[in-house]
Amino acid sequence: MAEPSWKGLLEKATFEELKDIYEGIMHPHDLTQEGPWVLRVWDGMDGCWCDVGSPGAPEAVLRRWFEETKGGEEKTKFADIDYYRIFPANTRMLYAGDNELFR
Question: Is residue 50 part of a domain?
């Protein structure tokens, strides 16, 4: 069985190329701060953000996002119920009523 095409992209792409793809799918300018960053998953059933692993170097966290989202094709938006997003590691999540947690 052949590997998915996103795995080839992940192996060959530079950090800047991956960052551009991420920001095109997620939110422009999400990744403007220096690291460390942390990958979080929005748990749509419980309504909270959970860290996925430890904070790390920007490139490592970005590559993990590509793995978890199958190259940005799954779990990238609120409508997916559970979705992944990258934040600066020092971001504190605040409760904003009955909606998503905002930074």
Answer: yes
Query: Residue 70 falls within a domain, yes or no?
Result: yes
Supply 15's token pair. 């950090």
Helix (H, G, I), strand (E, B) or coil at 60: helix
Q: Which carries the bigger pLDDT value, residue 85 or residue 99?
A: 85
Q: State pLDDT tens for residues 27-71.
A: 877 787 777 999 999 988 888 899 999 999 999 999 999 999 999
What range defines the domain where residue 49 resides? 5-27+35-88
Q: Is residue 97 in some structural domain?
A: no
Contact 55, 37 (CB under 8 A): yes
Please state the domain count of the chain: 1
The tokens for 101 are 């947690």
Task: Please classify residue 103 by burial: count the beta carbons closer than 10 Å to its beta carbon, then call 0-12 exposed, 13-18 middle and 19+ buried.
Answer: exposed
76 within domain boundaries: yes
The helix or strand, by DSSP H or E, that contains position 96, with its residue range, turns out to be none
Lowest mean pLDDT among 15-19, 33-37, 77-81: 33-37
